[in-house]
Write a structure and sequence with these properties.
Radius of gyration: 19 Å
Region (Disordered): 1-20
Shape: globular
Number of helices: 1
Domain Pirin N-terminal: 45-139
Protein name: Pirin family protein
CATH architecture: Sandwich
Order of helices and strands: EEEEEEEEEEEEEEEEEEEEEEEEEEH
CATH class: Mainly Beta
Structural class: mainly beta
Strand content: over 45%
Number of strands: 26
Largest sheet: 8 strands, antiparallel
InterPro entries: Pirin (IPR012093), Pirin_C_dom (IPR008778), Pirin_N_dom (IPR003829), RmlC-like_jellyroll (IPR014710), RmlC_Cupin_sf (IPR011051)
Distance between the termini: 27 Å
Family: Belongs to the pirin family.
CATH topology: Jelly Rolls
Number of domains: 1
Helix content: under 10%
Length: 321
């Protein structure tokens, strides 16, 4: 997934500032993506830049695309991160400069590790389902793995946790309640889809060393007593051993968490780095022809050029604002 903002601001993230359990409700921001998709951007936002190593969260849909092209994101570059594609409805066709060609469907994990450099595109197939609904997320890579070789993984068989009370959790990244996703991770984290039946009243076990946030995908569940609506993010802090979840009607949540990310990063456009010079060099390389990023073949359109850098230096900074 790309950040298509033509005037992206530098995002200074990371650093050691831990909190105990909190309930901070963060509204999303409407952002256009590609030709016909509007997303709700939950991370980064004015109040919260990261949750563990999760540094970017877009929630889109449900959108009726029966007579529309759907998602159309041209070839674009990434460094220093992983992209996580998670669908509730519809299909997304992934192409990348490694030669990967994969259709990702609901309940399947599409995981791309950019590492030192990769390029990819995402589009709704020509003959696609009528509804598109899902989330695109980024995970910042720790410094020791930022130069790892790029890779793409597709996992259709993911572990499920059922703890009673009407809750069913599909673990798509990391580990939750003893269930581990097959997706490759580089920091301790978790990403899980929580399907809530009508009348759900459950407590989900958590790791007290992780910080967590919950994103409502559908319905109006209560998380730790806070009612949520679709497209809102509830930051929950650290120090929790479990999480109460209730739902009068059926609903769906994404639970994101991880050990607080201690490193400072600079996130600008589709790059995650450590210095402004690194970001500028990646931008220049991509716009000059993409040397090092490879070529995405088969997409019917031009690649996406990086916008102008901001007039101020890009500098890393910690979580404290």
């Amino acid at each position: 997934m790309s950040n298509l903002d033509l005037r992206p601001t530098p995002t200074r993230c990371g650093g050691n500032r831990h909190t105990g359990p909190v309930r901070e409700l963060q509204p999303g921001k409407q952002v256009p993506l590609g030709e016909s998709t509007l997303v709700r951007r939950l991370l980064p936002n004015l109040g919260r830049r990261m949750v563990g190593a999760w540094c970017f969260v877009d929630h889109y849909g449900p959108d009726d695309i029966a007579d529309e092209p759907g998602m159309q994101v041209p070839p674009h570059p990434h460094i220093g991160l992983q992209t996580v594609s998670w669908l509730r409805a519809g299909e997304v066709l992934h192409r990348d400069s490694l030669g990967s060609l994969q259709t990702v469907r609901p309940g399947e994990l599409g995981l791309m590790t950019a590492g030192r450099a990769i390029a990819h595109s995402e589009e709704s197939p020509r003959h696609h389902p009528d509804v598109l609904h899902g989330a695109q997320l980024w995970v910042a890579l720790p410094d020791a793995h930022r130069a790892t070789a790029p890779a793409f993984e597709h996992h259709a068989d993911l572990p499920v946790v059922t703890g009673g009370g009407g809750l069913r959790a599909t673990v798509f990244m990391g580990e939750l309640a003893g269930a581990a996703s097959p997706g490759t991770t580089y920091t301790p984290l978790v990403g899980a889809d929580l399907a809530l039946a009508a009348g759900t009243d459950a407590r989900l076990p958590l790791d007290p060393d992780f910080e967590y946030a919950a994103l409502t995908i559908a319905g109006a569940p209560e998380v730790d007593g806070v009612p949520l609506t679709p497209g809102s993010l509830l930051y929950l802090g650290c120090g929790r051993t479990d999480l109460p979840v209730r739902a009068a009607e059926a609903g769906d949540l994404l639970l994101l968490g991880g050990e607080p990310f201690e490193e400072e990063i600079v996130m600008w456009w589709n790059f995650v780095g450590r210095t402004g010079d690194e970001i500028a060099a990646a931008r220049a390389a991509w716009n000059a022809g993409g040397e090092g990023f490879g070529t995405v073949r088969g997409y019917a359109g031009d690649r996406l050029l990086a916008p102008e850098l901001p007039p101020v230096p890009l500098k890393p900074r910690g979580r404290a604002r």
